Amino acid sequence: MAGRISRQFIDDLLSRADIVDLVDSRVPLKKAGKNYQACCPFHNEKSPSFTVSQDKQFYHCFGCGEHGNAISFLMEFDRLDFVDAVEELASHCGMEVVREENTASPEEQRRQQQVYQQKQDDYELMAHISRFFQQQLKTAKDKETAIDYLKGRGLSGEVVKRFGIGYISDEWDGVMNTFSNNGQANQQLIDLGMAISGEKNRPYDRFRGRIMFPISDKRGRVIGFGGRVLGDAKPKYLNSPETRIYHKGQELYGLHEAKQANKQLTRLVVVEGYMDVVALAQHGVDYAVASLGTATTFEQLQTLFRTVPEVICCYDGDRAGRDAAWRAMENALPLIRDGFSLKFVFVPDGEDPDSLIRTQGQKAFETIIDNAMPLSKFLFEQLMQKVDMSSLEGRAALVESFQPYLAKLPDSILKDSMLNEIANNFGTGSEQFLAKLTKNIKASAVKKAVTKQTKVTPVRLALALLLEHPHIANSLDDINVLQALTAPGIPLLIQVLGVCQQNPEIKSAQLLESFRGTEQGVQLSKLMCWQHHVEADAATDVFLDSIEKLLNNFVEQRAEVLLQKARAGQMTTQEKQELQAILNA
């Protein structure tokens, strides 16, 4: 690692990036005056309070308070660290990341270098292993067994290549012999889940005699593998363990490939196995993902709903499949808002999405997907089958059973409709039931915090105007006149003025970025969101007025202090001269 990312590069990147274009590619925006709006992707809401400013290159949610520039948005929305977010934004803008000499202490530089290099080495090794598996599908002595299996599953060479599918022979040291040359390499293979520690410090391959499916992260880097056995050995599917670069509860198999195949995804189908994803893609349904051997987690569902508005879970129709659907529904409830939907398809016994699409074809399968069961119907069916609807006791029990699930669901048209639907199932007394249920749910809801009004002070107003219009800093001839002032916030005002005057072309997003990770940055972010109602053409005059008020206040306060000293006969010669100058002014 040559060093940290160049500050100049970050400024150039933010000046070239268009936050409206970036956000709109992930959260569809609508024009609202000079800004753009959407329902916030970081919390659930009925009406849009998430605003993106093209002028400021800044986003802010008036509901939950999330805010930032293009880099911040990628960090929050795509769950990337700072460096990855910068690299992702640079890729989005067609730019190469520029780094500068590292100015950190030697010890910190070594630590940064180790962390960075370890990460790069891990990704590089996993990429090499993935290519090795793909090569083995062509050269292994028992390759025909693997090829026949894939052909028997109806997969073409094109699809196998698109998903990077490979093979590893049933040997103990296929990967170890190829990639291990010393103790350090052995440990890295163990750390990345490709090898298992053996007796007498002799590691051996984790994956043997399996079709290998590489698992990619959001940026297409291989971070793990799933292996499907060819015979009857157990387990049928073997997955990479948790590692420093692979966290299965946060990743989705096939998501990167689905994004590559579809510029505008509108829905995603969640299936249970790697082969289901690949088989669906083989038959034209190239928008399927798998949840990597776990129940679909909240983090995975959050990723899904940040990608598409419609998610269809396609599970087996047996008890295990319905249990998986129930867990997915519970995890998804807090994420469902108007315009977003979770649906369910249960395939017949003895079938799976792979066999279903092979026997019935793409059109028939997509018809099944089109008619998927909505979340509301699934919830109704599951809860109502557990009670006796013909008895008062059963209906009363249903009241209690619905409450925790509806309490998780954000306020929306869907929630209102479900409440009415529940009430209608009760016939007589439904109004009383609806009133009780609504009251109980509201009582359990979290109260929204009341936003405190920002107190208007000359310093706050000057800072807010500088953040929005950095060029107005040049209207102040000499910032040294502020050095003697003692009002709260003056050091930060001087610091911001200095940054603006040293960089005359700096924009709002760049200015805020220069304070990232500091306490001052937190304060400035809050001021960036402040609605001060000063029009752009009046910004310079109001800014200079604020500076003048600060100076006048200081002069008045200083004069009063000196006058008190004069009355007490405690003035120095220098203070007498200072007071005379103030009175003359």
TrEMBL record:
Keywords: DNA replication, DNA-binding, DNA-directed RNA polymerase, Magnesium, Metal-binding, Nucleotidyltransferase, Primosome, Transcription, Transferase, Zinc, Zinc-finger
CHC2-type zinc-finger residues: 40-64
Keyword flag Cell membrane: no
Reaction equations catalysed: ssDNA + n NTP = ssDNA/pppN(pN)n-1 hybrid + (n-1) diphosphate
Pfam families according to UniProt: DnaB_bind, DnaG_DnaB_bind, DNAG_N, Toprim_2, Zn_ribbon_DnaG
Required co-factors: Zn(2+)
Domain of life: Bacteria
Cofactor: how bound: Binds 1 zinc ion per monomer.
Enzyme's top EC category: transferase
InterPro entries: DNA_helicase_N/primase_C, DNA_primase_core_N_sf, DNA_primase_DnaB-bd, DNA_primase_DnaG, DNA_primase_DnaG_DnaB-bd_dom, DNA_primase_Znf_CHC2, DnaG_bac, DNAG_N
Enzyme Commission code: 2.7.7.101
Domain (Toprim): residue spans on this chain: 266-348
Gene Ontology MF annotations: nucleotidyltransferase activity
Comment text on domains: Contains an N-terminal zinc-binding domain, a central core domain that contains the primase activity, and a C-terminal DnaB-binding domain.
Quaternary structure annotation from Swiss-Prot or TrEMBL: Monomer. Interacts with DnaB.
UniProt similarity note: Belongs to the DnaG primase family.
Protein function: RNA polymerase that catalyzes the synthesis of short RNA molecules used as primers for DNA polymerase during DNA replication.
Protein name per its UniProtKB record: DNA primase
Organism annotation: Colwellia echini
Name of the gene this protein is made from: dnaG
